[in-house]
Amino acid sequence: MTTQNKTIQKNTATLSYNKASNIIIQNINTELQKQGRKLFLDDDIKKMYRLFTMYFTNNREFEKFNFEAKNKTIPFDLRKGLLILGNTGRSKTFLFKIFSEFTKEYSPGKQFRTINSIEIQSVFSAVGLEALKKYMYYRYDNYSEELRRIHTKDEIQNLYIDELGFEEPNIKHYGTNIRPLENVLFDRHKIFVKYGIKTHASSNLQVHEFKQHYSQRIYSRIFEMFNIITTEGQDLRLL
Predict the structure, then answer these.
(1) Per-residue burial over 81-116, b = 16 or more CB atoms within 10 Å of its CB, e = otherwise
(2) Distance between CA atoms of 161 and 51, rounded to whole angstroms?
């Protein structure tokens, strides 16, 4: 094991919530200074930062929180990914950016790559179904009579999809209506169930709108694969 890996393991094992919180606040201030902005935290934003810090440090306190669904209470679970829902300008994308950097050093097992839903849609429009394998992490078996897609676990990574629902749900490809993001979400659910590999996402949609924008099959799966966190309040870009 390299010295760097030993350091990472030590940091991950010994990092308390308070230490992690201090690191996060320092990283936030550094990033905001680059953008010429000042730190502003209302109660709702503070709650999101606390939840993210607990989640990405595997703090069991995270699981004392829950999401109030229409007919039931769904407890948070560290094994699931994060889905942040709320109006524009509520630091959803910024939050994931900060914690992406944090996980690289302090929580490598929770690292994730980032992709925007519009980018997935654009690449699909240009390339077609071949483009989706990048986000669904398939390899192709060319030795069978028919082209088969086979999971390779060592190539699959945690994934964060930014601005989920902002894309057009239907794209025409060779005259056929395809729903690229619905396909990605459906497949990422299978990956989660099979391997425990997480998908994170942020969206301006409300929970019930997932059924309208995608389908019932996606709506029912978001509760299984995501911890749903909602944020309300003023657009911070307008402050």
Answers:
(1) bbbbbbeebbbbbbbbbbbbebbeebbeebbbeebb
(2) 19
Buried b (16+ CB within 10 A) or exposed e, 14-23: ebeeeebeeb
Residue 127 CB coordination number (10 Å): 13
Per-domain boundaries in the chain: 3-238
**Which residue is listed with tokens 């950097």?**
101
The span from the CA of 236 to the CA of 91, in Å, is 7
Coil, helix or strand for 231? Answer: strand
Q: Which residue has the higher pLDDT, 140 or 72?
A: 72
Categorize the per-residue pLDDT at 57 as very low, low, confident or very high, splitting at 50, 70 and 90.
very high
Q: Write down the CATH number for the domain with range 3-238.
A: 3.40.50.300
pLDDT, averaged across the chain: 79
Q: What backbone phi and psi angles, to 5 degrees, belong to 101? A: -70, -40
Residue type, 84: I
User: Distances in Å between the alpha carbon of 217 and those of 137, 147, 213?
Assistant: 21, 26, 11
The pTM of the whole model exceeds 0.90: no
pLDDT higher than 50, residue 143: no
